[in-house]
Amino acid sequence: MFSRSKSHTLSHLKARSISSLKVVWRKDPELDRAIELDKRYKQCARVVKEVLNEPGQVIPLRYLEKRRERMRLKLKAETFLNQNPGLFDVYYDRIKPKTEPVRFLRPTDRLRRFLHQERRVFLDNEPFIVSKLCKLLMMSKNKVVSADKLLHVKREFGFPNDFLVDLVPRYPEYFRLTGSPGEGKSFLELVNWNPEFAKSVIEGRAEEESERLGIRVRPSFNVQLPRGFVLKKEMREWIRDWMELDYVSPYEDVSHLDQASREMEKRSVGVFHELLSLSLHKRIPVPILGKFCDEYRFSNAFSTTFTRHSGIFYLSLKGGIETAMLREAYRGDELIDRDPLLRIKDMFVELLEDGWRQRAEQLRLKQEKVKEDMELLATKVSE
């Protein structure tokens, strides 16, 4: 990359634009598999959401079929229902009084029990949800974020569907909502700064280590380069010097920092680390992060941060979508740093697996019946 003296190389690197520092992207099959394992669960969740959003939470089957593209459902709606029993009951009703009855879908009793349990989990974890929402506002430029953007990321962070109209008004000491969500001109503003929330995962980890060891431990990122990954010498030296910079808290005012400085890069990495840490699965699609460039002072080329710091993040291309993942949160393809709100996902997966076992048992019994009938027929023919 360079053929000059070490001192000249370092000074040249420090002067270069951060965005010009390139690291070759390397595929991580285990982290890609973590995304793949959630594929079926997410598809089922999208279909359930589509039905629950209907008036009365019922929908004609043929209407659901017409929405396959919007739900990114590759199977026919009827095939999906057959493969995932336990989600919906099928019954006949009329769309209009004088029309012929057609098949409708409605949530099963099991799905309704799950929805009741989901509300219980949200209620039990409400203080945790409030702290998450405060943290998102506290990291933002003016302590205010578009309410519509927050609605768009509610599933990424585990917020209830109605958090803006139900939860937010119950905490006027923290939040002020202006405008009407859904119209593009609504904003959620932080009313009071809670210093207990202004502590990042990195800072909390350093405090725990300091208490355990009895000596002060500097806040620092956990760097875990994937096996076989090699950085060029010049990039290693830049990363080494960058790691020596003081940690910049994502909750600190950085209006004085130059956008292209190494210090601002340190702060941006801290914000990405904190956002991913607050997310349910410790990963967020890059296009979603891109919606918050203004609020969190991300540069237009912010996605290169994830490859430039490959020991902290992984940029997955699985499914044709760039997804930023937090390496330290995973062991292989298993998420080890689990959010309390993932209990909701666990319960939904249990419901799905019960249905899949039911379907497998029905198929087994059907195959046995066919086999018995064929054996009986063969016996009669031989007689």
UniProtKB/TrEMBL annotation:
GO molecular function, one term: RNA binding
InterPro entries (alphabetical): PORR_domain, PORR_fam
Protein name, as recorded: PORR domain-containing protein
Originating gene: LOC100778092
Source species: Glycine max (Soybean)
Top-level taxon of origin: Eukaryota
Annotated ranges, domain PORR: 27-356
Family annotation (Pfam families): PORR
